[in-house]
Design a protein that fits this description.
The chain contains eleven helices and twelve strands. By secondary structure, the protein is of the alpha/beta class. Strand 9 and strand 10 form a beta hairpin. It is globular.
């Protein structure tokens, strides 16, 4: 074996010793994520994939739909819900691992319009005839819809504006109704209309948290998932200061979590 060949052999050996273990142990994850958290999740997944070598597929939709699908054996590895009740119920039914459940974000609700003059930073527009349609996520399927209903009931306005309500299956559809002009205003997730601490467009009322029950969003590893160590790695990544800073930048509460 000449000296040049020996160098090539040594370099190749070092490559397989130090590089291939990450490739060999790389796994694939499928994560069911509530629609309100979709953009935040994409940001987090990009960072996670870059640092871990694992591959992640995100499926977005309403928490209610995901709960039904998981209960019927849908092959997800992790569920990022828009509430805490559904992950708890999945744990109790044996569909999720109890020790894995934790609150990853506190959701915030906003009343938003693309019209810069329509919402004046409070609830006053709800008591006017300045709108024909107001969008809301379906309270039977979406935690943000439940919160919006609680706000309307606090002001005694639910029955009064019921005929003007347009319901989306989830908070993403409620947002689309307003964005496309099919509703003049709507209850949306703050993360959909804020970038950092700045409103992206239009006008909004950031709804005080005391007007509805906290929107505690829980994550859980599913019992029949195939994610293995990658699922645990992602959950640990979600708890890091770096991830929580990203989550907070999208308008979610993370203090005390």
């Amino acid at each position: 074996m000449n000296q040049e060949f020996y160098k090539i052999f040594l370099i190749a050996g070092l490559y397989f010793c130090f590089i291939s273990p990450q490739l060999v142990t790389a796994e694939s994850l499928t994560i069911a994520v509530a629609s309100n958290f979709a953009d935040t999740a994409k940001h987090l997944v990009e960072k996670f994939e870059a640092n871990s070598g694992h591959d992640v597929q995100l499926i977005t939709g309403s928490s209610g739909r995901f709960f039904a699908q998981i209960s019927n054996g849908a092959p997800f590895d992790i569920f990022l819900s828009a509430d805490r009740e559904k992950p708890i119920a999945l744990v109790e039914a044996g569909f999720a691992r109890s020790e894995s459940r934790f609150t990853y974000a506190i959701g915030r609700l906003a009343l938003w319009s693309r019209d810069e003059m329509l919402v004046s930073g409070d609830a006053s527009v709800l008591q006017t005839d300045k709108f024909k349609r107001i969008a809301i996520a379906n309270p039977r399927l979406a935690p943000y819809g439940i919160a919006a209903s609680e706000v309307l009931n606090k002001y005694g306005l639910y029955d009064e504006i019921r005929a003007r309500l347009v319901q989306g299956e989830n908070i993403a559809q409620a947002y689309q109704f307003v964005f496309t002009g099919n509703a003049e205003l709507g209850f949306v997730a703050l993360s959909q209309v804020m970038e950092g601490r700045t409103l992206i467009s239009g006008s909004a009322w950031i709804i005080p948290e005391e007007l509805h029950r906290p929107i505690r969003q829980d994550a859980v590893i599913l019992a029949h998932g195939m994610g293995g160590s990658a699922a645990e790695a992602f959950m640990n990544f979600m708890k890091t200061p770096e991830s929580r800073a990203v989550i907070a930048s999208y308008g979610y509460g993370v203090e005390g979590l």
